[in-house]
Amino acid sequence: MSVHLFRVGKIWHYRFQINGVRVSRSTRETVKREAETIAERAYRKARMWARGDEPVPTLRELAGQWLDAHEAIVSRSYIKNVATFRRLHLYGLADVMVDELATSLVETALLEHRRTHASASVNHWLKILKVVCKWAVRRKVMPDIPWSVKLLKVQKKPRATLPVSRATDWLAAVDDYARERPALSIAVRLMFGLGLRESEVITARWEWVDSDRMTYTPGITKGREADPIPMPDWLLEYLQPGRQAAGLIVHHGGQPCAAGFLRSAMRAANAACEIKGLTPHRLRGTFATLLSENGLPIQTIQRVMRHKDPMTTMRYLESNLAAAATVQASIARITGLQSDNQISNVSNRSGEKVANDTPQTLME
Predict the structure, then answer these.
(1) Angle between helices 182-194 and 167-177 (to 10 degrees)
(2) Three-class SS of residue 120?
(3) Which of 39, 181, 284, 356 is least buried, going by the fewest C-beta atoms within 10 A?
(4) Residue 145 buriedness (CB in 10 A; 0-12 / 13-18 / 19+)
(5) 69-78: buried (b, 16+ CB within 10 Å) or exposed (e) per residue?
(6) Which alpha helices (H) appear in 139-262, and where do they start and end?
(7) What is the pLDDT averaged over residues 242-260?
């Protein structure tokens, strides 16, 4: 060992010399094995400094560097996720140099995280670790990611959407809850009518509404784009009484609303209409699904949703079961399991769905 380890009382200390400079520090450890790891890491860093190389950071240091570099260019929610990862969920990896993150170490940390978190959270943890490590590779801190751990297989759950037949009642339930906070009613309609994210609703401004062209152009978005979105007549009419020349569309006493401000109102409306799991994000998913079910091409939906990758748009869309029901009825007729009258009823239901599910008719 290139480092001399000695004990002062119960605490292990280390000592080494590089280029004639003597270094002596406390490991603050009482366990020799842990002290040896700390001492060797300190010696390795000192040698790199002596050679003029940039020292390899520990995972805690790397996560901090990532946050500093990305604070102004990624969403606040993602910054919050990485900050929480760094503060609470590094487990035994915090002081490990990133090029020493062996697969066995990552698997041990993953299992520790899994003891208190759901499988989906474990995969999220692993993705954040990979993002931070890939950034280190791009910066040439290390040649490649030194670990390989697969994501857990997670059973997907049915995703909630707002049933078209109950949309009016649901919006009325939101209005009933929001009698003293009309901003909540405006916010849910911006999400349902334009597919805005919650963060885009919070920053929505009147000057971005073009009544002549009937468009709205979000000026602060996740992907930094500024693409116009068509505004339906019903939404323009709803907003008209409170129209201003400039300023926030959604606010509370003139102040911007905080993240999560719609949570209570949506829960109350869900309970009143017996709908489970409808969130601001799933309201955006409902918007995308309705566009798809009414014949809009995926490329146009991608543009309206402001997604970089069409595969991201695809994950928002729920299948149009009306078409599947028609094919099922045709199979039933061929096999003699269903009468022509029953098949006609199925076709009528499918046709009514297409005609009545348009967002335009929901507010009429």
Answers:
(1) 150
(2) helix
(3) 356
(4) middle
(5) ebeeebeeee
(6) 167-177, 182-194, 198-202, 233-239
(7) 93
Residue-wise pLDDT for 229-238, tens only, equals 999 999 999 9
Longest dimension (CA), the chain: 96
164-316 CATH, one of 3.40.50.970, 3.40.50.720, 1.10.443.10, 3.60.20.10:
1.10.443.10
Of the pLDDT bands very low, low, confident and very high (cuts 50, 70, 90), residue 351 is very low
Euclidean distance between CA atoms 288 and 317, whole angstroms: 6
Give residue for tokens 């062996």.
102
Low-confidence winner among 45-54, 263-272, 308-317 (lowest mean pLDDT): 45-54
Give pLDDT tens digits for 112-137: 999 999 888 999 999 999 999 999 99
d(CA 354, CA 67): 47
H helix runs in the chain, sequence order: 32-51, 59-70, 76-88, 103-114, 119-138, 167-177, 182-194, 198-202, 233-239, 263-273, 280-293, 298-305, 310-316, 321-335, 340-356, 359-362
Return the amino acid letter for 203. T
Res 330: pLDDT: 74
What local confidence, expressed as pLDDT, does residue 363 receive?
A: 38
Domain ranges of the chain: 4-51, 59-138, 164-316, 321-362
User: How many angstroms separate the CA atoms of 12 and 34, rounded?
Assistant: 9
Count of Cβ atoms closer than 10 Å to residue 118 Cβ:
11
